[in-house]
Amino acid sequence: MEPQGYFMSVLAALDDYDPNSMPVEQARLLIRKFLAAPLEQESINLSDALRRTLAEDVLSPMNVPPHDYSAMDGYAMRHADLENAPCKLKIAGSAFAGHAYTGRIGEGECVRIMTGSLISGGCDCVVMQEDVKVDGATVEIAGGHRPGENIRLAGEDIACGATVLARGQAIRPAEMGLLASLGFSRIAVYRKLKVALLSTGDELQQPGSPLAAGRIYDSNRYTLMGMLGELGVEVIDMGAVRDDRPSLKAALLDAAGQADAIISSGGVSVGEADYVKQLLDEIGEVVFWKIAMKPGKPLAYGKIGASHFFGLPGNPVAVMVTFQQFVRDALCVLMGQQPRPVPEFQVASAERIRKIPGRTEFQRGILSHDENGRLIVRTTGGQGSGILSSMSKANCFIVLPAAQGNVEAGSVVQVQPFLL
Ligand code: AMP
Ligand code: MG
After folding, report:
1. Number of domains the chain contains
2. Nearest protein CA to atom 11 of ligand 1, as residue
3. What are the beta bridge partners of residue 396?
4. Which of 7, 158, 202, 385 is the least crowded, having the fewest Cβ atoms under 10 Å away?
5. What spacing in Å lies between the alpha carbon of 247 and ligand 2's midpoint?
6. If you average pLDDT over every residue of the chain, what do you get?
7. Tens of pLDDT along 8-33?
8. Does ligand 1 come within 6 angstroms of the Cβ of 388?
């Protein structure tokens, strides 16, 4: 295959470019090179902001906390009055969260104070209630306290004007709360990424009616809807398309006219009814279409018009693996975010794992603890790329590098936990 158009310069610079068997890491880097600049912005209500992406840096308009607060239940006083401790101080009043002490304390006085109450009245030290002896309207305090003790100072968490969140930050529950804590009710975000979704195959039937002979239910569109839903993109559901070249061509052109990215499943290998790659060659540009991985060997990536095209394999497990290994990060970049790679770590395999050198394998694994409390991993059993229940049982991928052969029980393997 000759790379065409604007891909040419990038691809020509790669001396080991092989679109027929792309190593996993190279495929990731290559996709990154083609991802376009961020999208237009819009202003939305904070309550609608979950899973959106900040389009501007957020600077704190205030100190957090806004004033000096007590971090403990206890007694607030002027530290200078503890000079001759142990000493007795007279309780001049009290302060609760939301109800500050409004007076000024005199010499030898203190204020009963609760956690979260404003420090006021000239106090500069809070002694926790466990450290005082109360006797009617006076408290007895031992020595050894320092100025500022048990006081959260204004601006201690966030100073007014400091950058709290950077442009490109995904808005998760913590960011929702953080933005609310700073008083924001509207925020600038990138518009939602539009992703067109379609299945291919004459054998596909939609769930909801008894399965006809020789058919299978279209499950891929539902796993993809789920994974896209978690990312917070706008899904344009184009349904299932037959294995018919003109229909598929029309569907892909229609999708490219409306969406920032297109995701198809099936029809991407080299069977007689597999038109996806041929069509991508005809109406778009192909960057690669086979990756040295298992499952997920046929995976086409390219562009149709301005739209990024991901032609995922048909096998249900391969769909989830390729989405999670390539498409998720790519869509994050298109959404204006930095990719957030899933943290990987190493753990002992509880069992022997069969593996033939040559391709990177993403086996479905279950992380658990052995009788000594040590983390171990085992596979979910059968690793056929059609066994979707393996993805449901698994809580991680066991990532076996291309060069790796069989893994003996007790040896260490790399795992990538599922975050959701
Ligand atoms: P293909 O790459 O089109 O040959 O598909 C590979 C395998 O995945 C075949 O067994 C297909 O029946 C199956 N498959 C393709 N699309 C879907 C889908 N949408 N849902 C479930 N299985 C599918
Ligand atoms: Mg097919």
Report:
1. 4
2. 314
3. 365, 417
4. 202
5. 14
6. 93
7. 667 766 666 777 788 999 999 888 88
8. no
